[in-house]
Hints:
24 strands; 598 residues; 8-stranded mixed β-sheet; 21 helices; alpha+beta; 8-stranded antiparallel β-sheet; single chain
Amino acid sequence: MTTGGVRIRAGRPEEAAALSALVLRSKAHWGYDDAYLAACADELRLTPQDMADRRVRVAEAGGRVLGMATLDGEPPRAELGMLFVDPPAIGRGVGRLLYRHVLTEAGRIGCDMLTITADAHAEPFYVAMGARRAAAAPYLGHLVRMEAWPGGADPSWVGAWTGGRRSVHLGNVAEFHAQFPGAAPADGVPHYACLSAFAGPHPALVVLPLPVEAAWMRGLTRRLEWDEVEVHCVDAPDGALTQALLARPALTQRIRNSGLPVLPWGRTGASDRLTSGPPLPLGHESKAASHRLFRQLAAAHPGIRVPAQERVRSRRELARVLEARASAGLTSVVKREYGVGGSGTSVLTPGDVLSAGGTRAAARRLFGEGLLVEEYVPGADLYRNPTFDGVIAEDGAVHVVGTGLMEVTGTAYRGVTVGPGVLPAELTVTATAFGTAVGEALSAEGYRGWYDVDFVTDTAGRPAPTEINLRLTGPAAAFVLQSRLDGVRGGRHLVRTLDCLPLGARLPAPALLEHCDGLARRCAALGAVLFTTIPTASLEPAPYVGVALAARSRQALDEAEALVRFGNGALGDLFTGQASAATWASRRRTRRPRPRRP
Length: 598
């Protein structure tokens, strides 16, 4: 394993004495006296036989040994027995590489938990890497007992999507939707493009259509353990990002010469000039075409309910359809053929039609080109809006990314939660089987890349598919973050994205990032990690921020969301002088110092 010039390899029997000396030098770095180190010497000494028995791994660069670690014991619970970095190399990421390597190896041999007995000074490092203090651990003096979750190989979709390499990300959200009539509202699209930073698990270069603070990417790079990421902010008239990029030949040539996969938010004629791929069939971005495919596939999937749908071609026809449905006591979903995030979709109860002034008035307000009227599927709030994401590889194989539960306010998408146990098992199986069948049909037509199928559930819990997205999506960012965190922190994470969290006050970008850093420290005390995903909307007339939260339990995720919502709302108090003593006391109690690396 080689990362950033540092290679991880197996320890050699002839290195036992040299590695033992490195361990003692590293231990002494933390201020222990000679008497204590002498007492520890036997315990920390490595023998030639230990190289194999304790699975010793060595980090080296340029032939120089920088650190070492051991993976002791056998599945299902092994132990990170030793992890030491030579003092001159401390703070250069060597400990992170060794830790991640041991987690991956623990997963490979079948461990479900890894124990760590560490010096107290190293606890912040292990916490930052995703470990936790063991419950009911015995008193060990200056040592602490911790637990970590083994990592594993990247899921198959990562290889299908990126080839397992770093990638170039294009935030061409507006450019993609401009291909379809009435697909996207003008408001919010530039800010949403920030989510393209999460188009793949490890970006090398990100191109955005709006300026962002360098500190934003530095924070993401630190928390997600990315190598340095280049960010290029390109002025893109009318959102035509790739066209604007192609007008910068030096940058375009660098991207082409990098040999890295280029991941646009969605494929366009301009982006195809960078990816060198053939044009893709995008017909199923149409909600009418999606509906036809759903009906074709439904017979083989009895757990799926496909709502009825019809196209209306005139205002008068729309009024007639709404009148017939309202007279029968039926709620109608009126949607445009193309749309994003719930834009162009309205839900009309019979009462709504009446309050709008009748069916003719409602038709005048809603009618536009490519309008569809769909059966409303009533259901409970719980598990109401599932989603499925997949990747179709270049060879046509369909790779499941996962299922999640979307947060929808009215008809507007606001975020998603993904991870183990988010949806009931039966719903997950049904949505996955149908989503995979959709992918196989798309593959047969020649589509390649990321796709998404959105659902609503009825009162019996059956999923009813509503649309296909042939592009990256908001949930895609959550799945990518989950994959990256599982790889670098071990275990399986729950990830929740909140794309449009209101702020209690307008903030310039540097102040917003400082605010989010404070929230991140407080979330860490709850066992959650916070990432700022949309940092550019804090000066809008209705300011907001996008964040992602990750944790290993639903409780930690819910508590972190409550903390962030409270913190955002309290911003208004800071500027009006209305903050209560309780508010300030709460902030002081939950403040935590930044973790130190060993």
